[in-house]
Design brief:
alpha+beta, BirA Bifunctional Protein, domain 2, 5 domains
Length: 872
């Protein structure tokens, strides 16, 4: 049987469908907002809430082919890609899951049947062995007694030294939370393996399936307690099992990658198809296509940075194998067809993906060339086989050269990097530049508690303290000056969501807890802040009060975001899609897809429509309805977001209908006025508009008017004549500029004749050093260029005095540059007098102060030239 990658995927899903599993579509690469992952990195991500026991899944057993991306954190395969035969950035994870439907025995029997039965994958039983957690005797016995696997082919994996539950075969969602033993199935690539226990030797064996039994809840480092229901979570990499069934030595030799690599070679006229760099490019273009289709664009942070480093690493490896022209975007066509059946939307976004890739490729070529020149020069000058971490950071921070590329190049040259020092230095730099906000919570807080939000109607309420966390650890009290998170049974504080920032305010009792942010942790609302007086304990009755003025300004901005979205669709007459939003008390930001430039008249029209709807004082209606019903009724929603079955909707009469749980004004008239203060393009096909509302907008308008009044007073003009007068001044300045250019040319011609007579000969070199009465460096440089034509070979130093400073401009003819450079002469001047400056080998300038005698400098330079240049 011929096992194509597509056939393997279909066989897996068909097998579990016959075992009464519900087949569930792959979730987006962008996880649910409540998840702390940048990208979906495992098949279980979309089922996290069900493993935690937060929700009940509608089906008790399911199977998926989940699209995943691993480029950082615990599952960081990025540096292995291309060098390892079985690591990929983007991959598909085949998985079957049970939420209490079956346990260890059934899960293992299913896996064994699929892998070994002749109807299915038909892998020889002799080619398989397994690992188990050393305490999981039940799993060991299933393999040994039911499957009848010999004890030689069952390996027990122990805890790491002095670390309880820290084992490769004890799976954990995090430091605390759901966990349990796992059993892994390995394929023997060789019949006679020398050392079965060397699981990392991919030449001898490869892990193809991991079956996790989620039967415990870890409450601290040393203690786990049984869960009421045991779940099963399995994962088998599609690309890995394809390499086994297609009988090849690498993921990159499977049908999917062979096609991409062949296209890379055809497009760029490459002869070989066996090269590590080709593997990198094939993997990374595949990953980039899937990330971009999720509306992620290259940027300097978050998901956008991950995308950028993937694209740039691919481009670097293209350059490494001799590809000089832009090529990456040309590969999109060979990636999309194989996945159309699983992702129809990908084909519709083909040209958008192509344009994003092309734009990024063109931008990076300059960065890549500059970075490579600097790094190669640095490597040549190294005395030891080690590059300093500050050099790597300079390349990244100043030249924009990705750290991952520097690591790749250093690996090729066998140059060592102290990764620990580099990580610490980057962290230090981030802290110094306030990258990390003070008092933020870095990890997700796991709690089963559910807070009731009453903030739609109330700004304050009496509540009970149900949970307290300090440094993400649950505690019974919080004392003065301590920073932590308080969770109440009910709260008027809105937790950051849907682009809207969290509320601030106070929680008080016989104490004051200043809330500086509010976040959602699953169904609980966390109030982040610092206790300024007294103490707060569990189950205290407290008074929770938000900053009402700030909330009202936020509500103005949030409702205006909906009005803006509606106005954009009306004026631009294009099916724009929301790319992101940010709403605080000062302004709102709205990102959206639009391929053209928005004209100024369109901006004014958008602004006018918004303000007309504000003046109509339209009543805002909120309603909680079924999500499917909301879709049918045409409510706007984010396609990459996962919604609950019941959702909150917002309607502004016939202007806007959106799914939104944010806080809003009751009537549009409360907004007062709205003003667009910024419009720009932030990436290819992505636009950003920023707006201000209410009193903030009024102040901005008044500030601009005051500046106009100041200009009127300065120009002695009224408002109606202002533009005419400014144009008149501009025209006058242009005339003066032309006259100056004409006069400068006369001065330059005059000085040229005069200075030629000042030439002295030093060892057959023409030398001029003279003070000029031209206080314009640009004109002096033009004069030097004119003189160079007449006195080659020669050295020209012209200077002038301005505000007690001397400005020197040095020119050297091209046929002397190999012996002496203009920049070198600056260093010579600097030995005699203190100066600052720089430039190019043929033309440079410097500035000096407090020069007593310029003739002494001239004599000094003449003597130096005489001793330096003996012949040409």
């Amino acid at each position: 049987m011929q096992y194509t990658t597509e056939k393997i995927r279909n066989m897996f899903l068909e097998f579990f469908k016959k075992k009464n599993h519900q087949i569930v579509c792959s979730s987006p690469l962008i996880p649910n907002k409540n998840c702390n992952l940048l990208f979906t990195n495992a098949g279980m991500n979309q089922f996290q809430d069900y493993f935690l026991g937060k929700k009940t899944y509608p089906f008790s057993q399911v199977a998926t082919a989940q699209r995943c991306l691993r480029t950082g954190g615990k599952h960081n395969d990025f540096q292995e890609v291309g060098y390892s035969e079985y690591h990929n950035t983007f991959f598909e994870m085949l998985g079957n899951f049970s939420f209490g439907a079956y346990s260890k025995k059934e899960a293992i029997l299913y896996a064994w049947e699929l892998l070994t039965d002749k109807k299915w994958f038909n892998i020889s039983k002799k080619k398989l062995f397994v690992t188990v957690y050393y305490k999981d005797h039940e799993t060991y016995n299933i393999w040994n007694k039911i499957i009848q696997l010999s004890t030689d082919n069952i390996i027990k994996i122990y805890d790491k030294k002095n670390q309880k539950y820290e084992s490769d075969n004890f799976w954990q969602m995090g430091d605390i939370g759901p966990c349990g033993p796992c059993t892994e199935i390995f394929f023997k690539k060789k019949n006679n393996i020398n050392n079965l226990y060397n699981l990392d030797d991919k030449k001898q064996c490869i892990e193809i399936w991991n079956i996790v039994f989620i039967q415990f809840n870890k409450i601290n480092n040393n203690e786990v307690i049984p869960l009421k229901i045991m779940s099963v979570d399995t994962g088998m990499g599609l690309e890995r099992i394809a390499s086994v069934l297609q009988n090849v030595e690498s993921n990159y030799q499977t049908d999917v990658f062979k096609k991409i690599i062949k296209n890379i070679c055809n497009i760029n006229h490459l002869i070989t198809t066996h090269n590590k760099s080709l593997n990198v490019i094939a993997d990374h273009i595949r990953a980039a296509v899937f990330i971009i289709q999720e509306k992620i664009i290259p940027s300097h942070e978050g998901r956008g940075y991950i995308l950028r480093k993937i694209i740039r690493r691919a481009l670097f490896h293209g350059k490494k194998i001799g590809i000089k022209k832009t090529f990456l975007y040309k590969l999109v066509d060979c990636i999309i067809p194989p996945v159309i059946k699983n992702n129809q939307i990908l084909d519709n976004k083909k040209y958008y993906i192509i344009n994003i890739l092309k734009e990024e490729e063109l931008q990076f070529n300059i960065t890549l060339n500059n970075g490579l020149k600097f790094l190669q020069k640095t490597i040549k000058q190294l005395k030891k086989n080690y590059i300093h971490h500050k050099t790597i950071f300079y390349l990244y921070d100043t030249l924009g050269f990705p750290i991952e590329l520097t690591q790749d190049i250093c690996r090729d040259y066998n140059i060592q990097i102290d990764q620990k020092q580099l990580d610490e230095f980057i962290l230090q730099k981030k802290n110094n530049n306030n990258y990390n906000k003070k008092n933020t919570v870095n990890n997700i807080i796991y709690t089963n508690f559910k807070s009731k939000f009453c903030g739609y109607k109330k700004y304050e309420t009496i509540a009970i303290v149900n949970k307290i966390f300090i440094n993400n650890h649950e505690t019974s009290k919080i004392l003065k000056n301590e920073t932590g998170v308080i969770i109440l049974d009910k709260t008027p504080f809105f937790g950051e969501s849907g682009g809207q920032i969290g509320d601030t305010g106070i929680i008080y009792h016989n104490s004051i807890f200043n809330v500086h942010d509010t976040k959602n942790f699953m169904n609980a609302t966390g109030h982040l802040g610092t206790l300024s007086s007294g103490k707060i304990q569990l189950y205290d009755t407290v008074f929770a009060q938000i900053d009402k003025k700030k909330r009202l300004r936020i509500q103005n901005n949030h409702t205006t975001t909906h009005l803006l979205h509606s106005a954009l669709k009306k004026i631009l007459k294009y099916p724009i899609e929301q790319k992101g939003s940010f709403i605080n008390d000062k302004y709102l930001r709205f990102d959206f897809t639009y391929p053209k430039t928005i004209q100024s008249r369109e901006i004014f029209n958008i602004e006018n429509i918004i303000n007309k709807n504000i003046q109509k004082n339209i009543i805002i209606k909120n309603k909680t309805i079924d999500f499917q019903k909301a879709k049918q009724k045409g409510y706007i929603f984010l396609k990459n977001k996962i919604y609950k079955s019941k959702i909150r909707t917002l309607s502004i009469h016939n202007v806007s209908k959106e799914i939104c749980k944010g806080t809003h004004v009751k009537q549009t008239g409360e907004i007062g006025i709205a003003k667009i203060c910024s419009y720009k393009s932030i990436a290819f096909g992505i636009k950003r508009i920023e707006m201000i509302t209410g009193i903030t907008a009024l102040h901005k308008i008044q500030e601009k008017e005051k500046k106009i009044y100041d200009i009127q007073d300065t120009l002695n003009s009224d408002y109606l004549s202002l533009i005419h007068k400014i144009k008149k001044i501009i025209n006058y300045c242009e005339t003066i500029k032309q006259e100056n250019n004409f006069l400068n040319q006369i001065i330059i011609t005059s000085y040229k004749k005069k200075l030629i007579n000042k030439i002295i000969k030093i060892n057959q070199i023409n030398f001029i050093m003279h003070q000029v009465n031209i206080h314009n460096t640009k004109s002096i440089k033009l004069l030097i260029k004119e003189l160079i034509k007449k006195i080659c070979p020669g050295i020209i130093i012209l200077f002038y005095q301005y505000n007690k400073k001397y400005i020197f401009v040095i020119g050297v003819t091209k046929n002397l540059v190999f012996k002496i450079q203009a920049t070198h002469i600056i260093k010579i001047i600097n030995k005699y007098i203190k100066s600052t400056g720089g430039g190019k080998p043929e033309l440079a300038q410097c500035t000096s102060e407090n020069i007593v005698d310029t003739m002494k400098i001239k004599t000094y330079l003449q003597d130096w030239i005489k001793s330096t240049i003996l012949y040409i």
